[in-house]
Design a protein that fits this description.
Blueprint lengths: L3 H14 L6 H7 L4 E10 L5 E12 L5 E8 L4 H18 L4 E8 L7 H15 L8 E5 L5 H15 L23 H17 L7 E5 L3 H12 L3 E7 L2 E4 L6 H11 L5 E4 L2 E4 L3 E3 L1 H5 L5 E4 L18 E3 L8 H10 L2 E3 L1 H4 L2 H15 L5 H26 L3 H19 L3 H4 L9 H4 L1
């Protein structure tokens, strides 16, 4: 039975398919994940008890290359969610033109309740259960919500033990000493940043006049807030899972990041060296942050944050989706009627999978790139694909999400047609192979 999140993903596929003139078999293949795996992960806890965790891994589509996608540790992980995220990864890889299909994984757990040793046992146990389902040429995991470079390092090490050979290319987002890539830490945010810089050119923005709200202050949220602050943008609102802060004058973002990462508390502060002092700010909820009167709203937390219940109250004219699936299908329609420009997740946060692709290439070749080369290659891809999707949006007079899907569908359809479709196999002279075809 198809879950609600996956239904929404397919609804967007169908909407884009109505614009794209492609072989219907390409659309049909995208509707069905290739394989779904559910595993039980036994973990010996620090107090000696045994606890069983449920994990998932989904291969959505591997027509354009091995499947690729993150692993999230979260109490609300479900198979429906993982299937949807894997679907979005297929689309995302096609949008930016990298040779991967979509995959995703997750474990139902609140990692904040585990000790560091329990977290390592869970991470290694998950890989032990899915080892035959992943591989450098099959399916390449990466970090996602509540997983990080160290966890990826543990997982790569466990896989290498199982297959009896060092296999850095099996997982991306690893620590640099273990085969990770320069520039992977801020890649998701940097991809979204490059999209904003292109909009800045198109709309003649003066950064000092642009107010920004960032929902979610983890890896992606912190990095994009810092990049925009450095360019002069006014970051006026920030939130984490516990709530947010609002200050019309804007925040000194590096100071807020420093305190957040050292105290785990989100506070309005200004720091000089190691001395920090509180500054005046208003406490707000995550829901209130979404509805602030700002110029750019950046949802960088979890999916389904902007819904039909609150979409009409969203005031930001531009939304940059750094999170996966933060806007529901119904909310899309409401925002489109209001004229809101949404740079969709399948484009805005594609910097992460793009640099993961760079890491995989480096692992496979054994030749590692400089940070400058990573940034240059990422910027080239993001700028090219952003402007192409923007042109598709203008030519089809549709929203930018639909334009990104159209772009992805065209690339996916090329791969489907290359394998043969009904049009090819239904021709009468099916047994005749031309000399040209044989050459």
């Amino acid at each position: 039975m198809t879950g609600e999140i996956y239904k929404q993903a397919l609804a967007r596929l169908d909407k884009a398919a109505s614009y794209a003139k492609i072989d219907p078999e390409a659309v049909e293949k995208l509707r069905h994940p290739k394989a779904c795996l559910e595993v039980s992960i036994p973990v010996r806890m620090d107090n000696g008890t045994l606890k069983i965790f449920t994990g998932y891994r989904v291969h959505h589509n591997d027509l354009r290359g091995p499947t690729k996608g993150g692993i999230r540790f979260h109490p609300d992980v479900s198979l429906d969610e993982v299937k949807s995220l894997a679907f979005w990864m297929t689309i995302k890889c096609a949008v930016v033109g990298i040779p991967f299909g979509g995959g995703k994984g997750g474990v139902i757990v609140d990692p904040k309740e585990l000790s560091r040793m329990e977290l390592e046992r869970l991470s290694r146990g998950y890989i032990e259960q899915i080892a035959s389902f992943i591989g450098p040429e099959t399916d390449i995991p990466a970090p996602d919500v509540y997983t990080n470079a160290m966890i990826m390092g543990w997982m790569m090490d466990e896989y290498s033990k199982i297959v009896r050979r060092l296999s850095p290319a099996v997982i991306t987002g690893k620590p640099i000493p273990l085969g990770g890539s320069q520039g992977r830490d801020d890649a998701t945010a940097r991809g979204g940043y490059y999209c904003i810089k292109e909009l800045e050119k198109k709309r003649n923005w003066d950064p000092k006049e642009i107010r920004v709200a960032v929902q979610g202050f983890g890896n992606a949220g912190q990095f994009i807030a810092e990049m925009l602050h450095r360019d002069g943008y006014k970051v006026v609102a920030i939130s984490d899972s516990k709530g947010g802060i609002f200050r019309p004058q804007g925040f000194d973002v590096p100071s807020v990041i420093h305190v957040k990462n050292n105290s785990k508390e989100l506070q309005a502060v200004y720091c000089e060296g190691s001395v920090c002092q509180l500054v005046e700010a208003t406490q707000i909820t995550n829901e209130q942050l979404l509805e602030l009167d700002v110029d750019i709203l950046i949802p960088a937390a979890l999916e389904n944050q902007i819904t039909k219940q609150n979409a009409a109250r969203i005031k930001a004219p531009v939304i940059i989706e750094l999170a996966n699936g933060p806007t529901t299908f119904e909310a899309d329609d409401i925002l489109q009627r209001k004229g809101t420009l949404i740079v969709p997740d399948i484009l805005a946060n594609a910097g992460g999978v793009t640099v993961s692709y760079f890491e995989w290439v480096q692992n496979k070749s054994g030749f590692y790139w400089t940070l400058e080369k990573v940034h240059q290659a990422l910027e080239e891809i993001m700028v090219r694909e952003f402007n192409y999707v923007y042109s598709v949006m203008e030519s089809h007079q549709c929203d930018m999400r639909t334009a990104a899907y159209i772009h992805a569908l065209n690339r996916q359809a090329e791969a489907v047609v290359a394998m043969g479709t009904h049009h090819y196999f239904s021709q009468q002279d099916t047994n005749k192979i031309t000399v040209a075809a044989m050459s």
